[in-house]
Amino acid sequence: MSETTPQRLLASAGELLGRDELSLSLGINRKVLDAWIRGEGTVPSAKLSLLTIALAEFAARKTG
Question: Contact at 8 Å (CB) between 6 and 47?
């Protein structure tokens, strides 16, 4: 199965932030995050919105 955009975004964010920190930012269990990255289940839109916030906060820390 081909990788979806949410999978790629989560995998990249997990590498950048660390999967433990990312799962905390998304308010989910690490096992759920790992499953989404593997393509199991559907990532809710609300969690993608939280992903955007987590990445923006990361960028602010790096540039601030």
Answer: no
DSSP secondary structure letters along 16-42 = HH-HHHHHHHHTS-HHHHHHHHHT-S-
Close Cβ partners of 34 (under 8 Å, ≥ 6 residues apart): 19
- Rg from Cα positions in the chain: 11
pTM of the prediction?
0.89
Nearest to 16 by CA among 64, 60, 63, 59: 59
Question: Can you tell me the distance from the alpha carbon of 43 to that of 11, in angstroms, rounded to the nearest whole number?
Answer: 13
Report pLDDT digits (tens) over 28-51.
999 999 999 999 999 999 999 999
- Our measurement of the distance from residue 12's CA atom to the centroid of its chain's CA atoms, rounded to an integer in Å, reads 8
